[in-house]
Specification:
- This protein is 25% helix and 25% strand.
- The strands form 3 sheets. The chain has a 7-stranded mixed beta sheet with strand order 8-7-6-9-10-12-11, with helices on both faces. Strands 3-4-5 form a 3-stranded antiparallel beta sheet, with helices on one face. Strands 1-2 form a two-stranded parallel sheet.
- The radius of gyration is 18 Å and the shape is globular.
């Protein structure tokens, strides 16, 4: 059983539903040590007892809005996902995280099933989508995303049994030193989730077993391949790249 710490203000209603095999421990004070959730400006927010950093999901942020503008050049992510396809795709994001990539994919009109295994991150993502659905300009995008709590590498066949056009994998990898200051709040996510190379291999094997038309893997620009198999093509950016595996 995974314990999620939630700090609430007096008379604040509890609306959080704990994901499977988790329970929420409601606190009136900040815990002595560790991660906890609280509401800041009506956004569910992740904090740590010994840090000033915080993390929330806001699909109305300038960063996300700039990425999904209609007149913006296609992101490297989108180039890798879509390829030459002009039709709406069914995409499985096996490592949803905070949902930015899923949201950008859905903004192109694709249907997305997003899987997240960390209960804190899952609740942050649900909260962000809930607020997005309440905004008319974001609702059509948010409604294209179905989010589930599970470890994609070990999820049961009832959850991962549909015929996906594309499976997307973005395993956690170390931040570049140069980007640490720019994405300082993401340090919280790295500390919370960590890097699990064994689970990354399980994700790859499960993705192949689901037999999509192709698998797209995000990696550091100069990082090693996720598997021993070399991709058929790549989209390479300044700091990261997308390895594309077309399956027969």
């Amino acid at each position: 059983m995974y314990t999620i710490h939630f700090v609430k203000e007096a008379h604040q209603p509890i609306t959080l539903e704990p994901p499977q095999d988790s329970h929420i421990q409601v606190c009136s004070n900040i815990p002595d040590n560790g991660f906890y959730l609280c509401y800041v400006d009506n956004q569910l927010t992740l904090k740590h007892t010994h840090s000033r950093l915080s993390l929330a999901v806001d699909f109305n942020s300038a960063d996300i809005q700039n990425r999904i503008k209609a007149n913006t050049a296609r992101l490297d992510l989108i180039k890798a996902i879509e390829g030459k396809s002009k039709q709406p795709l069914y995409v499985l994001d096996m490592t949803a995280g905070l949902g930015q990539d899923s949201f950008c994919i859905a903004a192109r009109g694709h249907r997305v099933t997003a899987i997240e295994s960390n209960p804190y991150v899952f609740l942050l993502l649900l909260d962000g989508l809930k607020r997005a659905v309440a905004e008319p300009k974001l609702a059509p995008i948010a409604n294209q995303i179905q989010v589930n709590f599970a470890n994609s590498g070990a999820a049961n066949d009832n959850l991962l049994s549909a015929g996906y056009d594309v499976i997307y994998l973005d395993p956690m990898f170390p931040e570049r030193a140069k980007s640490a200051k720019v994405k300082k709040n993401m340090q919280l996510l790295h500390e919370l989730v960590g890097i699990d190379d064994h689970n990354n291999q399980s994700l790859w094997e499960r993705a192949k077993a689901l037999q999509p038309k192709k698998i797209v893997v995000k990696r550091p620009r100069l990082g090693i391949f996720l598997s021993i198999e070399k991709p058929g093509s790549q989209v390479i950016g300044k700091s990261s790249r997308f390895d594309i595996y077309a399956l027969p």
